[in-house]
Design goal:
Length: 124
């Protein structure tokens, strides 16, 4: 009975993880620009992969310690990678579609405020 319950839980987690991954792909295809696509792929697919890892542990295909380490790496690295890709896209000048407000526009294309030598000395 316990094995059947664990197997059913594993199958449920695979189905939910697959649905997260499908939502990620649909978001990637439907959203208009790189910045909104990063949100769909960065957040949703990480949760899908973590659910796959939990399902693999429940089924017995992966050791729990290895799955925890990999899951933590994905949860920590996913947002960092999404941010760095978005930052690189902004710096090379990929436009935002339908942007209402751009807080980084005043800082220039490099994302840093232009300062004079005197202002830099005062900051130190």
């Amino acid at each position: 009975m316990k094995e059947e319950l664990v197997a059913a839980l594993g199958i449920l987690l695979v189905v939910v993880g697959t649905s997260f991954s499908v939502i990620s792909v649909v978001g990637y295809l439907r959203l208009p620009d790189v910045y909104t696509r990063l949100h769909a792929t960065g957040k949703v697919s990480v949760f899908g992969i973590v659910l796959f890892l939990i399902a693999a542990v429940a089924i017995g295909a992966v050791d729990a310690g290895r799955a925890v380490v990999l899951g933590l790496f994905l949860v920590l690295a996913g947002p960092v990678l999404s941010h760095s890709i978005g930052s690189a896209a902004y710096r090379i000048g990929i436009p935002m579609r339908g942007a209402v407000r751009d807080d980084l526009a005043a800082r220039g294309s490099t994302g840093r405020e232009e300062t004079t030598a005197g202002e830099q000395a005062e900051e130190r």
